[in-house]
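Record 1 of the preview.
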Amino acid sequence: MSNVNYSENYIFGKFDTFTKRLEKIIKLVELIDKSQGVENLCIEGIEEIAEQYREIVEGLKKKNYDLLDFRRHEVLPYCIMCHHDLFDLCLVDSSGA
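->
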C-alpha cells in the first residue's frame, strides 16, 4: 500500500472553488426561474424584453460544456455575464424577495 500525500489546501481549495461555482450557477438558475413569467405577460412593450430573455436563456442552453467541470474556465465568466444580462432586464425585484 502506498502513502498518498495530498495537501489540505489542495483538496479543500478545489472544494471551495467548486462550491463557489455551484453558488453562481444556483443564483443564475434562480434568476432564470424568477424571470420566466415575462414570456406570459400581456403588457404593451414587453415583447422586446421577453425576446431578450429568450435569447439569453437559449444561448445558455446551447452551450455544450458541463457547467460543473471546474477545468473549463470559460464557464464561470459566461454564467456571470448571463446573470448580469438577465438582471439588467430588470425582471426581478433587486431586494432578492
